Amino acid sequence: MERKRNHTQIVSDMLGIIQERRGKIKPTHLMYKANLSHVQMKKYLEEMKKKDLIVKKNALIEITNKGREFVMKYSQIKEFEETFGL
Amino acid sequence: MKIVFTPDWFLSFDVLIEIFSFLVLITFFVLALRSYKLNQNKKALFLGIGFFLIAFAEIFTIFTKLVLYYDTIFTKEVGQMIVTYHVVNSVDVFYYIGFFFHKFLTLSGLYLIYKIPSKKGTMGDFILAGFFLIISAIFSSSVYFVFHIVAMIILFFIVMNYINIYKKTKFENTKTLIGAFAILLASQIVFLFSSIQIVYAIGQILQLVSYIIMLILIYHITKYGKKKKPHADSL
């Protein structure tokens, strides 16, 4: 069974999905891809916008440079944690 | 009694190896701290503290050795004056304190790294472990191999811990980590015979190899971490 994702992991997953889609995605696509409910996604998007990880442009969600940097740092940390079995 | 077993031709090389080890250990500390900040992972914090303590121990040994090597030259230059004798005597205390902290911090750091994958220990466990580590570090001043035996035992259990983790995860990086700690363990076995000067140098070189492997591991973590794509698993 997969482990329940924590808050930071969900944010990283959402940003990763946007990044895979050349940095832009429709909110509904993101919701399905990230496996989130509408309420959950709204909450996460607001927080990510506040932290400048994403911007909304023409009904699309775009990842910022800060968002890309976050995805990279988070992947490195995950790699580190897996190495040490943390 | 001899304080260090470094052969003359190896003087300064050992300090360079220790500076290199310090840099690798501090990088692991930074990675662990980042993990704690991002995920609030307490295990990562303790792992980071473990690496930091060993890095701090390296600082103690670097400064102590630098003073020791400098002092040797100084006393040779001054000659047989009585004043020099007093200076050396007071500096001796500095060496013992420096090497004591090196040993105590190294053992404490290794103990923390060993303790992390296991279930939470009680405060009593830590106090008892701390007591034994202090005793070991004190005894190591008169019987040099006590430190290496204790370090060897803790490193053996660290290697066993990571072998168990590897069996579960089959994660390649963990295999590299096992290799690095196993070589560090081998270096402690070699250090047991460091009264033979060449053996001491071999032990130091083994330690360098171990830290080079750790540096390669850091490269893998940062490089492949960039390439890895996140995925949404079930909630």
Question: What are the main properties of this structure?
Answer:
heterodimer; A: 86 residues; mainly alpha; Arc Repressor Mutant, subunit A; 3-stranded antiparallel sheet; 4 helices; 3 strands; B: 235 residues; Rhopdopsin 7-helix transmembrane proteins
3D architecture notes:
The complex is a heterodimer of chains A (86) and B (235). By secondary structure, chain A is mainly α. Chain A is 62% helix and 12% strand. Chain A contains four helices and three strands; from the N terminus they run αβααββα. A three-stranded antiparallel beta sheet of chain A has the order 1-3-2. In chain A, strand 2 and strand 3 (60-63) form a beta hairpin. In chain A, helix 1 crosses helix 4 (65-83). Chain A starts with 6 loop residues before the first helix and ends with a helix. Chain B has a single domain (8-225), classed as Rhopdopsin 7-helix transmembrane proteins, CATH 1.20.1070. Helix content of chain B is 83%, strand content 0%. Chain B is built from seven helices and no strands. Chain B has helices at residues 13-39, 42-78, 82-115, 123-142, 145-169, 172-191, 197-227. In chain B, helix 1 packs antiparallel against helix 2, helix 3 runs parallel beside helix 5 and helix 5 packs antiparallel against helix 6. The radius of gyration of chain B is 20 Å and the shape is globular. The interface between A and B is medium-sized, with 34 and 36 residues.
